[in-house]
Design goal:
4 helices; mainly alpha; elongated
């Protein structure tokens, strides 16, 4: 399933699609264990589809899609660099 198609689905439709894909994955794994199917490619695609659906769902929960990253994430990096330089000075 393509990413744009997944993004255009509503939340309830996403849940239905995730459930369908998980059920297909279960059935495919069961068939592979029984030796009836060699569908490794289909297995990979189903796992990726489930991951895409879960990612879109989580983005919607966090309201991340389309927003710019916050500047707060840069602050801890600067303080970590300051600590490193302090440690170097103490070692000398």
């Amino acid at each position: 399933m393509e990413l744009e198609k997944i993004r255009n689905l509503s939340d309830s439709e996403l849940n239905v699609e995730e459930h369908k894909a998980a059920e297909q994955l279960f059935r495919l794994r069961f068939q592979i264990k029984l030796g009836q199917n060699e569908g490794v490619k289909k297995l990979r695609e189903l796992k990726k589809d489930i991951a895409r659906i879960k990612t879109i769902t989580r983005e919607r929960e966090l309201k991340l899609h389309g927003e710019a990253p916050k500047a707060e994430s840069a602050a801890p990096v600067k303080s970590a660099k300051a600590k490193k330089t302090t440690k170097k000075k103490e070692a000398r």
